[in-house]
Amino acid sequence: MTSNPCTIDADKPVAYAAKMMKQENVGIAPIVEGERLIGTLTDRDIAVRVVAEGKSPETTRVREVASTAPVTVDPEQDLDEALRLMATHQVRRLPVVEEDGRVVGVLAQADVAEEAKTKKTGGLVEEISRD
Hints:
The protein has five helices and seven strands, in the order E-E-H-E-E-H-H-E-H-E-E-H. It is an alpha+beta fold.
């Protein structure tokens, strides 16, 4: 999981969001009002809902093009539940959100793959090290 992801205020222009996403090298940004998650913005949202529609990224607000009602996971839920949510909703990234709506992380499919690789490598080293 990426902890403490950069969030974007819903009233910021899309151009600001795109620049932040580039700086942070991320394909998704949690969109907030105050500290409460209200949606997500992906690089695809920007391409399809702004660029392809001929809207100005300087004047279009993030709230106008963000995906609302995102699928989220609670930090207390286990990885199996997060993976089930990803599969059920066919999403590759889940905002990790506290009960009060505060974003504490983003779990990406790539994070899961990296963790699995690490565990597999650890298991392989363990197997090789046996007498």
